[in-house]
Amino acid sequence: MPRLLLAILTLCVFSLVTVNAQSPTPRPKPPAKAPATLPPLDTGELEAGAKFAIARPLNWNGSVLLIAHGLRAENEPIVADLFPDRLAHKTLRDEGWIIAKTSYRRNGPIIADAITDLENLRAHIANTYGEPKRVIVEGDSMGGLIATIIAEQPPGDFPKYHGCIAVGAALSAREPNGTLGINLGTQLPLILLTNRSELTGPKAYVTPLTPFPRETRTVQPVLFRVSRDGHVNVNQHERLTALRALNDWLDRGPSALPKPAEGTEFFDATHEPEPQPSLVTFDADRRGFITRVTEVTAVYGNVAIDAQPSDFASTGIARNAWFQITAHDENRRVMYGRDFSAVKRGEWIAFPNADGFFWLARNFENAAKTADLKVGDEIRIRAYDKDQAAAPTYE
């Protein structure tokens, strides 16, 4: 082999060995970062004793959703019961929104002071975290009336609020000895999300029959229909639809709103929940099952369970039938009904909610307190045998 070729080959081999020898040993990849933990709820008290709860995101985008709750009995606790893990609010929080709620300073019919308490909550957020870029008010029932009245207030050069959503708005409600009510003069984008059984009032608000000065209404409100009976009987997908639509309206104008189907007057926001795989554990004879408590409402003590209509059907428990629940070794008789009107005062009722699961409650009483139920507790549900007595139990 010629000396020159041999020298070149030797040099190449030496270079390859040198490079390999000097190459660093591959380091193991660092472990994946654990998901960032959301800040805990901020709670406290505003002026006049109104309590508040604030759910902050990891990175605030400057947007705030204020929640105006509905009528509460005067003898119930004054609490700001915020549920940030529910789909609509969780989605906004994940996108950078602050979600906040106030108890108001008192229970019972309250409108003017409730609006002041919401303004105080907004001011607290601005002073604590910075001036918001966008503030939306979402209210249910009496809170829907409050949201509507807020939407009728002139925004001014530096608006406190930018839009409102009124769910099942109790538009005819009044505060005793109060003078504050609706005037039809909408000044902010307003969506009324309403069940089909309660369309009359919101429809009259959106398209009033009585003429009034058009200059008093600078923004035309819109009505979203939910094709389901009930009062505030809407699910999280339907709430999210309204929130998305309102934000699109604020970003791009009313032309961005979803259009009603041909031949219909109002956009139908109905989202029927799809059945999910069963989460319950059936008894061997399929006459009952074990379900778990997923939520307890702080004010009324209604109990959400992870059972679905198909679970009840599998055990032979039909609507308008009584069945038995067992919790903490105590038995109680419960009616599978449509809503609270199916039973007498003090009796137990179970009915499907708009999200496809069930509420377990007592009519005008606190079910969670009665049965000492909390989130995560197990409840056994059993169909009554034909020859088994189903004596009523109210405690």
From TrEMBL:
Keyword line: Signal
Signal peptide segment: 1-21
Gene3D superfamilies: alpha/beta hydrolase (3.40.50.1820), Bacterial fluorinating enzyme like (2.40.30.90)
Segments forming domain S-adenosyl-l-methionine hydroxide adenosyltransferase C-terminal: 300-380
InterPro entries: AB_hydrolase_fold, SAM_HAT_C, SAM_OH_AdoTrfase_C_sf
Record bears the keyword Signal: yes
Keyword Signal listed: yes
SUPFAM superfamilies referenced in this protein's UniProt entry, alphabetically: alpha/beta-Hydrolases (SSF53474), Bacterial fluorinating enzyme, C-terminal domain (SSF101852)
UniProt name for this protein: S-adenosyl-l-methionine hydroxide adenosyltransferase C-terminal domain-containing protein
Organism: Nibricoccus aquaticus
Lineage: Bacteria, Pseudomonadati, Verrucomicrobiota, Opitutia, Opitutales
